[in-house]
Amino acid sequence: MTNPLLDHTYTLTADQRKALASRIGTSPAGLHQLSRAYRTSGKLSLTPDLARRVEEATDGAVLREQCCVACGKCDLAAKARGA
Q1: Cβ atoms 4, 26 nearer than 8 A
Q2: In this structure, how many other beta carbons lie within 10 angstroms of the beta carbon of residue 9?
Q3: 63: Cα within 13 Å, side-chain hemisphere
Q4: Which residues of 66-77 are buried (b: 16+ CB within 10 A; e: fewer)?
Q5: Contact 16/57 with Cβ under 8 angstroms?
Q6: What's the predicted TM-score (pTM) here?
């Protein structure tokens, strides 16, 4: 199973993944766990705060709505994206 964060990490070198993990506020092993969504059978289910940090750390390549169910349902997120 794939998801936007996992797809994004596949495009990065090991050093870039380490830097991304640091910007998110986790370790490379933590990023590995997050991106593979082991606890949720491959479906990303991050907290809103963590989803925001992922979006900021990836410079918008991975959107918070793609990582967090609550953000995906938020009217403010849709308005911010111009939807």
Answers
A1: no
A2: 21
A3: 11
A4: bbbeebeeeeeb
A5: no
A6: 0.85
Radius of gyration of the chain (CA): 12
Give every CB contact of residue 54 below 8 A, 6+ residues apart in sequence: 5, 24, 34, 46, 62, 64, 67
Q: What average pLDDT does the structure give for the chain? A: 89
Flag whether pLDDT at 79 surpasses 90. Answer: no
What are the tens digits of pLDDT across the range 34-71? 998 877 777 788 999 999 999 999 999 999 999 998 88
Q: Which residue has the tokens 């998110």?
A: 24
